[in-house]
Every structure is written in structure tokens, then in C-alpha cells.
Amino acid sequence: ANYTKLPHSKVGPEHLSTLITFDLGGQWQPIRPPKSDAHGNPIACDKSTGCSLHLSQQFARLYPNTQSETILSVSSAPGIVMATGTVGDSLKGKTSVYLSTDAGITWYQILKGNYLYVMADHGGLMVAMENFRSEGESHTLLYSTDEGKTWLPYQFYEEPVRIYGLKTEPGENSTIVLLFGSRKDEHEWIVFKVDLQPVFQYKCGKDDYKPWTPSNPLTSLPWCLLGHKEVFERRAPSSNCYNGFSYDRPISVQDCPCARQDYECDYGYVVNTATHLQLQGPAGQPPDATTNDSSRALIDKDAHWLDPSFKHQTCIRDTGDMPVEQVGGSSSSTGR
């Protein structure tokens, strides 16, 4: 999420910073920047000075001086996130394209400059095109089949054109990418259809996949995210094969013991420390647990709730609940 302290003048990129959460907003923190750029050169960024990675969102797409791509994450490619961003104390600065393959914990700079981008073939194919607004017209796109480690050019037209957007089929399950553009001095749309299946050597087999599990680095059980452990099958980036239109990704789910991150504050409570809740003003009256109100489920009547509207309500309470404690004379409990 991007946040800002509203200035007296118009809001610009220099007023925006980015924070990330791994527990539905319970805790927020700056994004750790990559250690090196797309060419392997070290990136100097000292977090003690407020330096971190900042990612463009809807504001950057609408801001006339940037109009950069927003964060791209699709359900067909679990854990893979592409984004435009800058390293510094705000979104102001020269943009580049960044990639995370572990759902936002670790980031890599994969392209320098301002690009349009999409994912295809269930995340096994990435396609990027220079944004003509800052990089000029082009007749060549870039593609990667190894999660952004290497990029190769593909010329799709005989003359440079302006490309306004890239699209894939819903579900990102094919190797076909559509490019919407126009010639520099004309106002007629041109649509280019590019099928990149020939860049792959073969169709993926069983040995081309590996298991991947999302995690929360801030918890004592990092593999238990929102109450359960999920294991996804993902294609190994070193395998130059395509998943195919009919690929059905296996997913296994195992519930975990309830942890602090699975709870949220009861009415009238706020987070006091990393592990406790403290009464703040008059406590509100929670819904009667005997009614049909399904929006919340009361776990401990003094301080914390487990919300059944989210997946983390699947955690195993018998082995993970913690007792209510007294802090500063008021009821408190481990909770989010």
C-alpha cells in the first residue's frame, strides 16, 4: 500500500511511500530493496536513512509525468509479483521494473526503465515492452522464460510503433500476447498478436515442477500464512518448457495452530506491543455470540477475535490459543 502525509500543495510521487503487509494489514513494514540492479551493480540503500523500495500503484498510472504500470499479481501465478518502482525515500526518481517470486518478501530489479508488462502461460512467460511515453517508440518486445533472470528480444513489426497496452487471455493460460498500439503520426489502432510458444523447447513434464509455499517472515511459524500452510506446484525457472492451456496447478492445504497473527482486536482495544492488546477508552459491546451474526466469531470475550470471513479462520484453536494477560491494569491478550 502507498501512503502519504498530505502536503499543502498538489500531491506528487515525492509524497508517496510504500509499505507491505503479510497478515491482512495487522503489521506493516517498508519493502526491502534488492541488493543489486538489473546489471549486477550494487544498489546503495541504507534503511536507517529511510531508504526502501517503493512501488507504483494507481496514482502513478494517472500521474501525467510517469504513467507507469501498477503492481501485477495473478492467481494463475502464485507468489510471482511484477511492479514498477524506485529505491529511495519516496516514489520520486528513475523507475525500473522489479520482481518478487516469494509473494513480496524478496525483490529483484529485472529491467531498467519504464515498461509495460504482462505474465502468460501460468506465470512461466513474462513479456515487457518499453513505455513509449518515456522510452520512445519501438518494434521489439522483450520476453523471459526464467522468471526475469534473462530477457530476449522479439521483433513483432517492421517499424517502431507506440504500444499503449499488453493483454493476455483471462487466466493467463496461453503463450499468446496482444499488443495495442498505433503508428507515431496516426490515430488508428493496430493490434498485434504474438504467440511465443515457439521460444519454448517442449511441454513441461512432472520433473519440471517444484513445490512452493508462501510464508510470513514475521511469525514464529513462517510457513503458516493466515492460519494454514499451502503448497503450490510451480515450474522450475531453469526448465525451458511451457505449461500449456490445460495445465491444472495442484494445491495442498494443511491447517496450522492459531498464532497471534490469526487474531484481531476486539472492540475498544488497540495493539500495545508486538504481542499484546490494551484497552483504549470505553470498550464497545461485541455482537452476541449466540446470534446469527456471521461476520465475526468471538474467541476470547476480553480482548481478541477470530474473523471467519477470512481464510485464517481455519487455524486450529485448541493448540494455539494463548491466555488473556493483564497489562497496566487492563485486560490484554496476544492478538493482531
From TrEMBL:
Residues 1-323 form the VPS10 domain. This is Sortilin-related receptor-like. Its main location: membrane. Keywords: Glycoprotein, Membrane, Receptor, Repeat. GO terms for cellular component: Golgi apparatus; membrane. It is found in: Membrane. The keyword Glycoprotein applies. GO terms for biological process: post-Golgi vesicle-mediated transport. The keyword Glycoprotein applies. InterPro entries: Sortilin_C, Sortilin_N, VPS10, VPS10-sortilin, WD40/YVTN_repeat-like_dom_sf. Pfam families: Sortilin-Vps10 (PF15902), Sortilin_C (PF15901). Residues 317-336 are annotated as: Disordered.
